[in-house]
Amino acid sequence: MRLKNGIAKYIKSTALQRRIMRRKALDRFFAFEGLFVMGVALLVLFALVGQLAADGAGRLSWQFLTSFPSRFPAQAGILTAWIGTLLVMLLTALTAVPLGIGAAIYLEEYAAKSWLTEVIEINIANLAGVPSIVYGLMALGLLVYELHLGQSFLTAGLTLGMLILPMVIIATREAIRSVPPAVREAAYALGATKWQTVRDHVLPYSMGGILTGMILALSRAVGETAPLITVGALSFIAFLPHPPWQETFPFVSFEWLFDPFTVMPIQMFNWVSRPQDEFHVNAAAAGLILLVMSLAMNAVAIVIRARFRKRIHW
């Protein structure tokens, strides 16, 4: 009897060891597979960036950054394109970020759970996956034809703002949900109101996730072309928008909001469509500048996010 029990325990222990070994082998396989996939993705990324740098690095110069577009490749520059990109991104952020954060706070902290809020949440999730050209067509009908805003910076900023608004709302809600309930309960126990709890505790603790969502949303917006072409972005502009200031009171001018515009992706598309190889080199150089601009925007947001996280002490 003891022999049978010993044999049974040995068989069970051996089977358990084999199962553990198989699981460890499976874990190592998945770790290797993930590392392999990441390596392939990085290799492809480095190859694309390297090819872009090899084609366009020689064209980078101060003259290229400060010159207007031209029909002569050697004289063409991206002055209007990169200024237009910065202004459109500024309007996009001013449009989408306050509205997105405010909507997320209301839905997560104030709105009662009902069929209406469920419908709103479903629509927000669906809007985040709508193709960008649909936003361009909507903006063309609403902003250009109905509101008569024209083919302007304001139209472009509002269009891209509507495009990334669902992403900002979803990212902000997820960041707010990650705040432990104990933070809210402690604030309420000390006599804080609902708004004081959200303003002084929930938002600071969730700011890292909110900024991460903003980075992803603006990174998508900076490379969008289809909705801007739809609302009337120009591919050739040989003048700068009006300055945002003036010599007389109130010293601030909003005339530039209604100026025609172009952006870096559209300028690149225009050059790539040309048959001359020199214009293709210009497009590669413009791509490098756009990549640097995107990385710089992300770096600023990452620095701000890191500072917010350092101020948090659990």
Plain-language structure description:
This protein is mainly α. The model has no long low-confidence stretch (mean pLDDT 84). The chain has helices at 2-56, 62-66, 79-110, 115-127, 132-146, 153-177, 181-189, 194-222, 226-230, 264-272, 277-310. The chain is globular, with a radius of gyration of 27 Å. The longest helix is centred in the first third of the chain and has 55 residues, at 2-56. One of its GO terms (molecular function) is phosphate transmembrane transporter activity. Belongs to the binding-protein-dependent transport system permease family. CysTW subfamily.
Q: How does the SSE layout of this entry go?
A:
Elements: H1 2-56, H2 62-66, H3 79-110, H4 115-127, H5 132-146, H6 153-177, H7 181-189, H8 194-222, H9 226-230, H10 264-272, H11 277-310
β-strand amount = under 5%
| Count of distinct strands | 0
Mean of pLDDT = 84
- Give the count of structural domains: 2
Please state the CA-atom Rg, rounded to the nearest Å: 27 Å
Number of helices: 11
Notable features of this structure?
2 domains, 314 residues, mainly alpha, MetI-like fold
Q: Quick recap of the structure?
A:
With 314 residues, the protein is mostly helical.
